[in-house]
TrEMBL record:
Gene3D superfamilies in UniProt: Histone deacetylase domain
Single annotated GO MF: histone deacetylase activity, hydrolytic mechanism
Compositional bias per record (Basic and acidic residues), positions renumbered to this chain: 130-139
Subcellular location: Nucleus
Keyword Ribonucleoprotein among record annotations: no
The keyword Ribosomal protein is assigned to this record: no
Family: Belongs to the histone deacetylase family. HD type 1 subfamily.
Keywords, comma-separated and alphabetical: Chromatin regulator, Hydrolase, Nucleus, Repressor, Transcription, Transcription regulation
Name of this chain's protein: histone deacetylase
Amino acid sequence: MTKLVISASTFQSQVADLLPCNNFKKSQLTYSLIQAYNLFDYFDVIIRKPFCSKEDMIRFHSRPYIEQMMQAKLNGIQEYDHMEDNWNQLNEVSEAWYRANDEETPRETRFSSREKLLEYFKEIVESKCDESDSDDDKHVQKKMKPSNPDQEMLNEFNFTGDCPLFSFLPMYLQVCTGATLSLARELPPPSSENFERAIQINWDGGRHHASKNHASGFCYINDIVLLIQELRKKGFQRVSYIDFDLHHGDGVQNAFKYSNLIQTISLHLYESGFFPGTGSLQENKAPGLVNIPMMHGLNDKYLYVILLKIIIPLVDKHNPQVIIIQSGGDGLLGDKYDEWQLSIRGLAHSIMRIVNKFTDSHVIILGGGGYNELIMSRFNTYLTWQIVKRYSSFANIQQTKDFISNDFDCLIPEHEFSELYAEDNYKYWIYEQPGSIRNRTLRDNNTPAMIKQCISTIRDALN
């Protein structure tokens, strides 16, 4: 038996889309598309009101850094913020669809403003604090005396450029980090007599760049590091972290580079001038710290070779109790970075190969990068479906096998955000359909000789 757990709700998706790089819709499109296929019906546990405390964050991040981000005044619309209409655009789309289709009201309440979202969040905080046996939150609240950040402090913590202090930042951090930590809390300790494997998902997690006292690459709190710490606290010793994001998982690597029990494997683009500029083969200390640097144009074929020749043997050797997969989709064909040409099916197939092979390990799948929201909703939904189809105790194979047809004429199901896919002719696979306006072939700078050298170098480090 496998227990399927997901942290997801309209509330969580609206909070996640406070993050500027989500373009106000990435998480909501994913949640609504998964819901349109009724895939949530096949999960054993759905976490709908995730939350974590300030003290949870300080277990890795420095107190002064957290103090600045968790100021109460940031849980409101900032003077420079004129984005309410942009954040609210999907509410208008949803309302118009329900009116036009004479449908019943949505299954879950959508919040019509960020202030109303905050009101609901405060109810969650109050209930969580009432349930708690400790006074950690109140203690931290009294202890913290944040000051107005000057330019020097903004620069010190990197609250400039791609990581500004945006409106409702504290709520975003507590909800999205809480969603990841809630997964760990659902796992029984490894000492439990009867092992029941769990596969868990938080599409709003995977913030792999943040360091102890420094925001980076749209990442403010490193929920992955906090997750691993929580797993260790529960008694799990060996953890493997596998990062498929286009960018190097530098924050996670740096946090555990001296640990023999935490294995970090990052497959990423490594070219001059590309952020974050780390993750070369020279940094490797196999089998615990492994970087797999690739160049522009990586395709499904080479990804699968790397998976079979490097990633799976390394994980097999580590024999982890828990595998964490950061499934960032910014390497997918059609992403705004336009660097790799992985297909939805290709990346999902590689991830599922790991899930299917290591059946004695719990698996936690987190989101990450991906800057074409229409592609990411498709990818996240497709991978969710693959997991449900294979592992849900509620799934009937006949019911679920054709949910997402492989036919290029397969259409996005009718739902509240269907019209956002109109320019794609509502086709699920338009980015992979030969001859379509969305399908492009990039020049692949990865050569067979380079792949072979990469494999050989990493294998040599293992011996």
